[in-house]
Write a structure and sequence with these properties.
heterodimer; A: mainly alpha; two-stranded antiparallel ribbon; 68% helix; 2% strand; globular; B: alpha+beta; Ubiquitin-like (UB roll); 18% helix
Chain lengths: 336, 95
């Protein structure tokens, strides 16, 4: 279950008993190899726990920070329909963040601890949300491309070996499909609209294409965490495999829009049946991830401000709850 | 941060199909009323639910994974608890 008290008990017991680590490890791996799930109070190696704490919380932070670029256009959506759908999408992002924090908390760290990691700048989140949303077409490009890339990444995570993460991902994937379709619909409308609207759609694609390809993470030959994650069935496909799947799925969609991709080296390989892309500028990826993207400071500042300005609301809610439970206790005593 | 942690609640939803309430996740809230409201906002955005339960996480008593074999293994050998254990003559037909 999700009670942290139980987790604490287990860690204490582990310290007092000389743990037969090799036997435990073998049993743990056997569960994973049998495609069974690891649940919160099951024994797990510290490295597995830490990997998931990091991955799930970064995923949660990304959803929460991801509300900002979209929120930028909420008051300027071109119609009531677009505004309603964008609002629903942003609410979903909040919901996804909360499902994920909820899953991350089962690994023995509190919500507050994870949030502090984000607010202090210690935790990372997806590099894509550090790019600005300059026009309405960016709402289309984000839904179509960013959410499309997220789906590619997230569908295999529905079978991740850690139960709470897998269950959260199943809910998220169901909802993410709406996000991608609403984004693509915006792109279709713009691409088939006036020349100015089509140019706006093309500009959004031009700016987001490369950052979206970077979302899948470094190339396999430079990726640090993959070996363990693969063995533990957290990660089922490599970064490059997922990136390839995404490109193969997306190019025909872009062609239908009559738009061009900002990659002169993009070619279809008849022998393999795959699209081949040009060289990704990994120095940009590293720069953005290290905090020097176009919007890193702005995104973090907005989060810190929201946290600080919401403090009185949380205080008031706690004070009210304390007062009510005190009154209840007093009236119970009086009745007895 | 010196702020006191907001309590954790487990959320259970029952969907239209008439199945029992099922655990779906957790929320943080200062009291039960706010926990219900938060659970509604987070877990029922698409008509998933006709009923919600929230339970303080600290109130849940869970079995220990270490005891799994002791608790659940004994039923494994009692195959006579399943209808397929019994032979019914073909002539009798479906039973």
């Amino acid at each position: 279950m999700y009670t942290q008290a139980l987790n604490a008990d287990e860690s204490q017991r582990d310290q007092t008993l000389p743990a037969p680590d090799a036997a435990k490890l073998a049993r743990f791996q056997a569960v994973i190899d049998a495609e069974d799930k690891i649940e919160p109070n099951d024994w797990m190696p510290d490295a597995y726990r830490r990997t998931l704490q990091r991955q799930i919380s970064q995923h949660a932070h990304s959803e929460i920070i991801g509300m900002q670029p979209e929120g930028n256009w909420l008051t300027r959506a071109p119609s009531l329909k677009r505004k309603a759908t964008l609002l629903a999408k942003i609410q979903d992002e909040a919901g996804h963040g909360l499902y994920l924090y909820s899953a991350a908390e089962t690994l023995g760290l509190s919500r507050e601890a994870y949030c502090d990691q984000l607010l202090s700048g210690k935790a990372k989140y997806s590099s894509i949300f550090n790019y600005p949303t300059l026009t309405w077409a960016d709402m289309g490009a984000i839904g179509w491309l960013v959410d499309g890339a997220a789906i590619m990444n997230q569908i295999p995570l529905c079978r991740c070996s850690y139960g709470p993460y897998a269950r959260a991902m199943i809910r998220i994937c169901k909802e993410e499909s709406f996000h991608q379709r609403q984004g693509y619909e915006i792109m279709v409308t713009l691409a088939h609209g006036t020349p100015a609207q089509k140019a706006m759609a093309q500009d959004a694609l031009d700016r987001f294409w490369w950052p979206v390809l970077m979302m899948f993470g470094p190339s396999d030959k430079d990726s640090m965490h993959s070996a363990d994650s693969t063995k533990w069935k957290i990660k089922r496909f490599s970064n490059d495999e997922l990136r390839q799947k995404f490109i193969d799925a997306t190019i025909p969609q872009g062609r239908y829009l009559g738009l061009t991709f900002p990659d002169p080296d993009l070619t279809f390989n008849d022998a393999t049946g795959h699209w081949e892309h040009g060289v990704i500028d990994w120095s940009e990826f590293k720069r953005v991830l290290a905090g020097d993207g176009p919007c890193n400071r702005q995104r973090l500042k907005a989060r810190q401000t929201a946290e600080a300005e919401g403090a009185w609301v949380r205080d008031a809610a706690r004070a009210y709850a304390a007062k009510r439970s005190q009154r209840q206790a007093t009236s119970q005593v009086a009745a007895e | 941060m010196t702020e006191i942690a907001t309590p954790l609640w487990e959320v259970f939803i029952r969907n239209r199909s008439g199945l029992p309430h099922k655990h779906c996740g957790s929320v943080h809230a200062a009291d039960a009323t706010m926990a219900l409201q938060a659970a509604r906002d987070v877990y029922t955005r698409r008509g998933e639910s006709v009923s919600l339960w929230v339970v303080p996480s600290s109130a849940i008593i869970a079995s220990d994974p270490v005891d799994r074999d002791v608790l659940f293994e004994p039923t494994g050998s009692k195959i006579y608890r399943h209808p397929t254990f019994y032979d019914v003559p073909d002539e009798v037909g479906h039973m």
